[in-house]
Amino acid sequence: MIFNFPFIAVAALIIVGLYAVVFRKNLIKMIIGITIIESGVNLFLITLGYREGSIAPIYTSSPGGIMSLPVPQALTLTSIVIGVAVLALMLSLVIHIYRHYNTLDVRKIGGGEE
Amino acid sequence: MSGMSKIVKTITNVAIPFILIYGIYVIAHGHLTPGGGFQGGAVVASGLVMIMVAYGSVWTMEKIKEKNLSMLESLGAFCFILLAFLGLVFGSVFFNNYLVGSNSLFGTVPAAGSGLADISTAGIIPLMNFAVGLKVIAGLFAIVLVMAYAITKKEAKE
Amino acid sequence: MDKRSIAAVLSFSVVAVFFIFTVLLMHPFGAPDSTAMDDDIISNAQTETGANNAVTSVVFDYRGFDTLGEATVLFTAVAGVVMLFRRLKK
Question: What pTM did the predictor assign?
Fold first, then answer.
């Protein structure tokens, strides 16, 4: 019944985020698209390390049985923190752009048309 | 931004000790239960942001200057690197876990298989959890406070 | 402008088709391919590091350099945000 359903959810998240980055002209919507792509990548990292019918890899009062892989979970922690740091820097740059140009449309900021 | 009404401030005063104790519990038991430095630090930073939303960012910035937050974050990062260098001094490699197996503070080795939790295990991992937790708390709260304070100054200027 | 929008639609559809093909060719959910390193970590984590939590021992002991890099990225982001909102105080 499961049949690769988390992998299909990862592909859907990345495609929706990529659509928001490529086809929308508002700066805030593009930043939201980048955050959605990041959520899809984190879900993919966790989904790679699951074994059928396993429990969490913790030994304190554990009921016994096979355990899922701990290394992808550790890499996902690092990825989430880096996503938060990049989002903070992007948002502060958008505040400065709005203060300077008074608009959030990507067609009107920058050097102009070529 | 300005603060909110008296009901919000009273509920914040009641709920803050529970949030802070839960966050420090998650940081301190990182080697026994799910959690650790990053997760507990995010919980405590969310509680501090709740204080800032209820009382206003101007009042919070006057009580807590951003110099103190920068100093706390640098202290956390410095303690983390100091613990890694002490592994080079006492052991033989960088990041060596030199407290496991000795008879000092965090020295005992737990029995193999599932068992009850003993807090004085796992070498230098609890100390590293505290250093990283302090760094994450100060860093995340400084980001939100600086952004919220800068917006009020901009509204007043133009 | 018309050529630019046609190029955008074409490249987006190529990337989307590649993603859908990759998802249908992945290994079945619940049976990872090679687990030799993780089995080694799970069986030796309690005696070598002394921690009951295998994920924390991987983050701080077996892969401590990744945590050091992540702490540096967080410190750089906070320094950048505080620097961007600093104004000359009179």
Answer: 0.90
